[in-house]
Write a structure and sequence with these properties.
Helix content of chain A: over 70%
Strand content of chain A: under 5%
Order of helices and strands of chain A: HHHHEEHHHHHHHHH
Distance between the termini of chain A: 42 Å
Strand content of chain B: 25-35%
Number of strands of chain A: 2
Distance between the termini of chain B: 41 Å
Largest sheet of chain A: 2 strands, antiparallel
Number of strands of chain B: 10
Helix content of chain B: 25-40%
Strand order of the largest sheet of chain A: 1-2
Radius of gyration of chain A: 25 Å
Low-confidence stretches of chain A: 1-39
Largest interface: A-B, 21 and 26 residues
Structural class of chain A: mainly alpha
Shape of chain A: globular
CATH superfamily of one domain in chain A: MetI-like
Shape of chain B: globular
Number of helices of chain A: 13
Bound molecules: adenosine-5'-triphosphate, magnesium ion
Oligomer: heterodimer
Radius of gyration of chain B: 18 Å
CATH class of one domain in chain A: Mainly Alpha
Mean pLDDT of chain B: 91
Mean pLDDT of chain A: 84
CATH architecture of one domain in chain A: Orthogonal Bundle
C-alpha cells in the first residue's frame, strides 16, 4: 500500500493503452518505411523489447494489484476479527458496533452459496440447450439474431433485473414456490420460509440464473462451434441422428469448456450485489437457522452493500471487510478451478 | 451382406455450383472400385453422395439416381441415417472419437443401434479389430484412449469402427494419404481381405495403390476449373492401366497430365 513502491509501477504500465500504443505507433513506420536493413532490424527489436516490456509490466501490475487488494483486506479485517466475541465462521449473528461485537458469516455463506448454486442449476442446462440450438439446430438466418439477443441480456444492468424480479417474476413464481413448499416441504431445502414469495432466495436464484445465462451460453456456443468437423462426420457416418451426433461428438468435446463457463458464471453469481439486495428480504436478528430456499437473508455482497451506513469506524468496517475477504477467497477458488479445467483441456487438444 | 451400387445420371451441386455432372456407373458387390482423377474433379463429392454424407453440407444437393441393390437411396421416405448405417465411410484423416477408449470407439456404431449386451459388444470388438488387423496391437489396451494410437493404427481403428456395424458397402476417401508406407501396405492388405465381405469404393491419388487394390477403376476429370467434373472412363483396373481407350486417361495414369 505504501505509495513509494506502488507509485512508479502503477504510473508506468498500469494504463498500457495510451503510452504503449503510442510507442508502437511511432515505431511502426520503421519496418515498412525506407531505411537500411540494419536499421530496420534494430527498430524491430526495439519494438519487440518495448512490447515485451509493456506486457511484462502490465502482467506484474495485475499481480501487484491483486496482492495489494489481498493485503489491504487482511490488514483491515484482522483488528476487527481480534475483537470479535463470536466464532467468525459458525456464528449467524451480525452485531459490529459496541465494545463486544459478535459477528459471523455462516448465514451469509449459506445464502450466497445456495442462491448461486441454484442459479447454476438452472443456467447451465438452459445455457447448454440454447447453445446447442444455436450451433447445431438453428438455421443460419435465425442463429445470428438469436445469439445477439442472448448477448444483449448481458447488457441489462443488475438494477433492472432486480426491479423486474421484484415486480414481475416474484408474483409470477409465487404459485410454483407454494407448490414446491406444499409437496416437497419435508426436504429442508423446500421447507416453509419466513418471508413473502416475492423476496425469497429462490427468486434471487432465478434472477441470478438469467443474469449468468449469457456468459454460459456464449462460451458454450464457442466451444460447440469449435467441434472439429471430422468428429461430427465420424458420428454421422456411423448413422448417428443429429442428437446422437451431439452426444458422441459435440458434448464430449465441449465438456471442459462448459465446465469453465459454469465456473465463470458461478463467480459472477457469487459476487452479484444489487439484484440480490433488492430481492431478498433480510431476516430480523436472532431468526432461527433455516436451510430453505424460501427464506431470506443476505449474501456476502448484499450484506456489505447494505451495511454501508456502518462504515464509520475502522472496527465496524473491518467486520464487513472480513466478510468481503471470504467472498474474495471463494471467488478466487472458483476461478482457479475454472483455470485448471481450461488448462487441462488445452493439454488434451494439443 | 455386400450389395451392388448403380449410379445413373448423377449430378451434384453445391448451391448454384455444379460440381459433378452426369455420372453413370455400376459397382458390383464384393469388389474394390477405385476413383482416380486430378484434385477438385469431384471424387470425394461423388463418394459422399453414395451414403448421403454430402447432406451435412448446407446447400449440397443431387439430381439422378443411386440404387443399392435396386433400392433408390434418394427415394422419398428413405432416411439418410438408415442409409449411413448400411453404407459405412472411412475418412482421409483418421478420426477416432478422442474422448473414447479403443473399445468404445469400435462399438460406437453398435451403441447407436441400441446394442447393449456386454458379451456381444466384446465379441464384435474382437471380431472387428481382428478384421481390421489391429487386434494383436491393441488387445492389451482396449481401455486406453483411441487418440493414443499411431496414425496408421488410428486409421485401422476407424476401419474397425466402420465394419463393426456390418455395413453393406464401405466407402474410403483417401484412407492412406496421411499414413507412412508400412501402414499403407497394412491397409491395402486389409482392403484385400475385406472385399470378400464388403463392396468397397476407394478414392486414391496413388496410382500404384489403385493398381494394387482395385478390381475396377473410374477416372474422373474436369474440362477446366469452374466446370463440373465428369466420369471420363471406367473399366477393369488392368484395362485402365494397360490399355485405356482414351488419351486423357493414359496421360493421367502415366503422369503426363496437365
Ligand atoms: N463444401 C463444399 N462447398 C462448395 N464447394 C465444394 C465443397 N466441397 C467441394 N466443393 C467443390 O466441388 C468440387 C469437387 O470437390 P471434391 O472435394 O469432390 O474434389 P476431389 O476430387 O475429392 O479433390 P481432391 O482430390 O483434392 O480431394 C471442387 O470444385 C470443390 O471446390
Ligand atoms: Mg477429395
Amino acid at each position: 500500500m505504501s505509495p513509494p513502491t506502488s507509485g512508479p509501477a502503477v504510473a508506468g504500465p498500469s494504463f498500457p493503452g495510451d503510452p504503449v500504443t503510442g510507442e508502437l505507433a511511432s515505431s511502426a513506420p520503421g519496418p515498412f518505411g525506407p531505411g537500411a536493413e540494419g536499421g530496420r532490424r534494430g527498430q524491430g527489436r526495439l519494438g519487440d523489447r518495448l512490447f515485451g516490456g509493456a506486457a511484462l509490466g502490465s502482467g506484474l501490475t495485475v499481480v501487484l494489484l491483486v496482492t495489494l487488494i489481498g493485503v489491504f483486506l487482511v490488514s483491515q479485517a484482522l483488528p476487527a476479527l481480534a475483537r470479535n466475541q463470536a466464532n467468525f465462521f459458525t456464528s449467524t449473528e451480525w452485531v459490529v458496533s459496541g465494545d463486544s461485537p459478535r459477528f459471523g458469516i455462516a448465514r451469509l455463506l449459506w445464502v450466497t452459496v445456495l442462491s448461486s448454486l441454484m442459479a447454476l442449476a438452472i443456467a447451465v442446462p438452459l445455457g447448454m440447450a440454447v447453445a446447442l440450438f444455436l450451433t447445431q439446430y438453428a438455421p443460419r438466418w435465425l442463429a445470428r439474431p438469436a445469439a445477439g439477443a442472448v448477448d444483449l441480456l448481458a447488457a441489462v444492468p443488475s438494477i433492472v433485473f432486480g426491479l423486474w424480479g421484484l415486480r414481475v417474476l416474484g408474483p409470477l413464481t409465487g404459485g410454483t414456490q407454494d407448490f414446491l413448499r406444499d409437496h416437497l416441504g419435508f426436504i429442508p431445502l423446500f421447507s416453509a420460509g419466513s418471508v413473502s414469495s416475492t423476496t425469497t432466495i429462490f427468486l434471487a436464484g432465478i434472477v441470478l440464473a438469467i443474469m449468468i445465462l449469457p456468459i454460459i451460453t456464449a462460451l458454450s456456443r464457442d466451444v460447440f462451434n469449435q467441434t472439429p468437423t471430422t468428429h461430427k462426420e465420424a458420428a454421422l457416418a456411423l448413422g448417428a441422428t443429429r442428437w446422437e451426433m451431439i452426444r458422441t461428438a459435440v458434448l464430449p468435446f465441449g465438456k471442459p469448456g462448459v465446465i469453465s463457463a459454469s465456473m465463470l458464471g458461478l463467480g459472477r453469481a457469487l459476487g452479484e450485489t444489487v439484484a440480490v439486495m433488492m430481492l431478498v428480504s433480510s431476516l430480523p436478528a436472532g431468526s432461527a437457522w433455516s436451510w430453505s430456499l424460501f427464506g431470506g437473508g443476505e449474501t456476502f455482497a448484499s450484506k456489505i452493500a447494505l451495511g454501508a451506513g456502518e462504515f464509520d469506524t475502522p472496527e465496524k468496517t473491518g467486520a464487513y471487510i472480513a466478510a468481503g475477504l471470504v467472498l474474495f477467497v471463494l471467488t478466487f477458488i472458483v476461478n482457479a478451478i475454472a483455470r485448471v479445467v481450461i488448462e487441462r483441456r488445452k493439454a488434451f487438444t494439443e | 451382406m455386400a450389395k451392388r451400387i448403380d449410379i445413373s445420371d448423377l449430378s451434384i451441386y453445391y448451391g448454384a455450383f455444379k460440381a459433378v455432372e452426369d455420372v453413370t456407373m455400376s459397382v458390383p458387390p464384393r469388389s474394390v472400385t477405385a476413383f482416380i482423377g486430378p484434385s477438385g474433379c469431384g471424387k470425394s463429392t461423388v463418394l459422399r453422395t453414395l451414403n448421403r454424407m454430402h447432406e451435412v453440407i448446407p446447400g449440397a444437393r443431387v439430381e439422378g439416381k443411386v440404387l443399392l441393390d435396386g433400392q433408390d437411396l434418394y427415394g422419398s421416405g428413405v432416411d439418410p441415417v438408415a442409409v449411413r448405417r448400411t453404407i459405412g465411410m472411412v475418412f482421409q484423416r483418421p478420426n477416432p472419437f478422442p474422448t473414447m477408449t479403443i473399445r468404445d470407439n469400435v462399438v460406437a456404431g453398435l451403441r447407436l443401434n441400441g446394442v447393449r449386451d456386454k458379451k456381444r459388444l466384446d465379441e464384435i470388438t474382437e471380431q472387428s479389430l481382428r478384421g481390421a488387423n489391429l487386434w494383436n496391437e491393441v488387445k492389451d489396451r482396449l481401455d486406453k484412449p483411441g487418440a493414443g494410437l499411431s496414425g496408421g493404427q488410428q486409421q485401422r481403428l476407424c476401419i474397425a469402427r466402420a465394419i463393426a456395424v456390418s455395413p453393406e458397402v464401405l466407402l474410403m476417401d483417401e484412407p492412406c494419404s496421411a499414413l507412412d508406407p508400412i501402414s499403407t501396405l497394412a491397409i491395402e492388405d486389409l482392403i484385400n481381405d475385406l472385399k470378400t465381405r464388403f463392396t468397397i469404393v476407394i478414392v486414391t491419388h496413388n496410382m500404384q495403390q489403385a493398381a494394387r487394390v482395385s478390381d475396377q477403376t473410374a477416372f474422373f476429370n474436369l474440362a477446366a476449373t469452374g466446370k463440373p467434373g465428369k466420369l471420363v472412363e471406367m473399366d477393369s483396373t488392368s484395362t485402365i492401366f494397360n490399355n485405356p481407350s482414351l488419351k486423357a486417361t493414359e496421360d493421367y495414369i502415366s503422369g503426363r497430365f496437365g
